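Lab notebook, bench 4. We co-purified these components, and the gel suggests they stay together. Before we commit to crystallization screens, I want a quick structural picture of the whole thing.
Request: model the full complex, all chains together.
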Amino acid sequence: MELVLAAAIGVLVGSGVWLILRPRTYQVIIGLSLISYGVNLFIFSMGLGKPMLGLPPILEKGEAGALGIHADPLPQALVLTAIVIGFAMTALFLVVLLAARGLTGTDHVDGRESGS
Amino acid sequence: MLDEYLLLVLLLLPFLGSVAALILPTDARGVNAVLAGSVALAGLLATIALYPAVTNGGVVSWRIGWMPSFGLDFVLRIDGLAWLFCLLVTGIGLLVVIYARYYMSPDDPVARFFAFFLAFMGAMLGVVLSGNIVQIVFFWELTSLFSFLLIGYWHHNLAARDGARMALTVTGMGGLALLAGTLMLGHIVGSYDLDAVLAAGARVQAHELYTPTLVLILIGALAKSAQFPFHFWLPQAMAAPTPVSAYLHSATMVKAGVFLLARYWPVLAETETWFYIVCSSGLITLVLGAWIAIFQQDLKGLLAYSTISHLGLITVLLGLGSPLGAIAATFHILNHATFKASLFMAAGIIDHETGTRDMRRLSGLYRFMPVTATLAMVACAAMAGVPLLNGFISKEMFFAEAVEFHQGSLLDRSLPYAATLAGAFSVAYSIGFMHRVFFGPPPTDVPKVPHEPPRLMRFPVEFLVVLCLVVGIVPALAVGGILNTAAQAVVGRDLPYYSLSLWHGFNEPLMMSIIAMVSGVILYLLLRRTLESGVEGPPLLRRLNAPRIFEAVLVTVSWRWARTLEGWVETRRLQPQMRLLVGAALLAGVAPIATHGFGSRQEWPIDIDAPFALLWLIGIVCAIGAALSAKFHRLAALVLLGGAGLVTCVTFVWLSAPDLAITQLLVEVVTTVLLLLGLRWLPKRVRGHDGDESTSIVARLRRSRDLVLAVCAGLGTAVVAFAVMNRPLTDSIAGFFLERAYSEGGGTNVVNVILVDFRGFDTFGEIVVLAAVSLTVFALLLRFRPAADSRQMPEQQRLQNELDEAAEGREAGDTVADALLVPSVIMRLMFPLIGTLAVYFFLRGHDLPGGGFAAGVTMSIGFILQYMAGGTRWVEARLRIRPVRWMAFGLLLSLVTGAGAWVFGYPFLTSFFQYTDIPFIGEVPTASALLFDLGVFALVVGATVLMLIAIAHQSIRAPRVARSPGAQPPPVGSETGGR
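Here is the predicted assembly.
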């Protein structure tokens, strides 16, 4: 379980890093999205204790929860925020990308085709 | 009690007056002068009223908590020394205001002048009245700033701007050094309170940080008082209006430096280091300033160098570290302010009435303005130290100190000679001033016919000159008490005996005075030819232009070196920067592991859950596929990205995070739509076309390097994630939230309770960010201008339209309108269902997965589907969504809900909850957090819809641009023109 999740995080981050090092703006935006999946999972995994599976995320009425019996809500709250902000960032970046492409005529990250 | 209020009034009044002056009409000289004069007069009266409280070592202070947690108080404190300075600042301030009323031209924006002037007066009073050493630095910097504004008052004048800039740079840098020194001093003493600092002299001097502290504070003080090697800014500041020079550069601001030396005298003085630094700097300044002053051709230049020299004298006296020296210094501060302010004002009158202050053009003015000439000559004599004038007495005290103080070092032994030399120089330049300006033939080369100034313009000069005479003839009677009070505050203990009288018998100081007088006269006679030949600046030193050296250093450091450094390390290209960033992140990640290891490794299990592994096999293929196809197959990359997102989403469900899964799924949908809308504006890219350089060796190498980086980053994250997941579960603050989510937040969905209740303020910040982003997106797109090759209608649509036109009975656009007809009907029908789902998500959020975010995104998906099904025009003909209003409503609702807690006396965003039974729906949790969540919901709907619609609108705007370029410009963003 942990191994698979760790590998998944690694692949998401690795693919994302590869893409943000590319010269085309669209590659960078896809890369950022992949990295944010990876990072969200990474933050989320911080709250995964043993056992990883089957912990209830929702309390019973009137119940006081405890760590180890319920799923850790803190990383979840953080990641929920991160997902929404990640969306906003993607939108902003997309628009900047489009504006830059309109202004410069190219979709290179530097605003001009590079020789090297 | 009254005294404390007087202190407060004394400090606040000038600042209030400054603001008032700004409101007054800008050309009302009279009103402005009356205002400034009343403020100065009130300050003067308050100062005089405070005198009884400060005699015999008395101190009045007023304090209020400033940052109590840091033990900092705002303290106003007045003692004898501060009182003397208050007298100078307000008294000379009043005289200068009267003078400035006539000096300033009606064309000058006088309101600004008096506003700066009063603000400066307030800052200066702040420096001397501060009872907290950090506060001193604050007002100290304020004086630098306002003096900058005053020197640069005639900002159309290049010299004024340069002079102001240099003054600010030098005194500002000094101020920074002073700040550092002050903080160190406070650290040594353990308190920033001035009383505590003044009482800790022995402790400070024994401390190992004494020397650096001393050096830093001295840099600040010496820079302010224009002492060598910081002396060069003062002559440049003479570009200021003369009232400013008379006030700032004789009586007040430059005296702030010696004030500080006097203020810290009990704490820092009487050590060898103090003696060597302060005395040598003062002595060099004293002699050098006087020497350069002889060779000035500009009246104000002469006075500026003379001021530098006299400040040097005061510095030497303070540097000696003897109580008698401190007394003489205090006395000379007073005397110098009197005669130098009157001389500056006299020089201003000469400038004002003749149109020039160049001594090469002036001569014989005595016959045109006998009164002013007489006054100026008396003041000059005081400057030269002629008997019966105040300058003589303090100079005698200086000579006496120079002779009598014996520490034995070379510096000490050379003091009497240097003092006599400087005395001779000052006699020479004073005679030069008098003789060259007032005697000789009438001037031939002056712009105006000289005459006496208005009566009141001359009054301040008259008053000060009378003071010079009174103090010079009956010193003990005139200022004995004041001097005693002030000097006692400087020395901080009982004063040794000193005699304040004109005649001490025929002794060494008198001998030195006579030698200085005689040699000064001879020196002037010898140099007269040279001076009248019109050369500016002294021989030998003429080429050593300190301001120019300073400028050169400044340019080298701040521009040339900065450029060179930038050339080495900067790049304007994104990719190298990203590589650096990733590389740095990698190093930062590896470093702690390399030094500390992973901890308990033996527990690492390798168990693989087959379905989960299979799931992620798909996810991994999607991620890598997206990475590979993002360049040439954007749509495919987007689909694969969505695949990876879905797998992430399933993972959240799998691992007990339903809220995350819902949000991820919904956001996934919106992101995909968003990116799809963007695809249309990107350039066509086909493998092997448009200069595809992917096969060159350089490109291969670059890609290999990036691949290594990417693999390292991925591996690193995976290893860290694996290690973290296998660590023993530690106690975290999560326990707190789990325990109290129901009892205090009233919800069973802990994640939602955290978001809307416990950490509601964070969520509020987040929705503000979301609102800001969507408005930014909207604003950016208002000015959007697509690239030339994206302006035409997409090829597919064009072909379809051509077919339509060719076919019988069809119009262009019919095929496009009919595309996906069945799905679009379904999509339209979905609208109410999706709306209901959003409400459902919203209402259950507090107890079950859902909440404002999820509901908001769901609702916006509902709207977007309508756009996709019917097209932008179809939807907007039927449904007006006003996303900005949704956002405003949401933001306000959240804010009001949060602020509502204040009404009940709770902190911002404290929530209240109970369960309400609504018919047919059942028991619904109605917490005030629900209202907050409603705000979140509305804002998310508004923001998401605004962004998506803004991008969608570009498609219906662009073809119009393409069809009629120039004839009908696009509504916005057209100013950049077509290419």
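The first strand of chain B starts at residue 60 and ends at 67. Worth comparing against the SEC data before the next meeting. Residues 571-602+695-730 of chain B form one domain.
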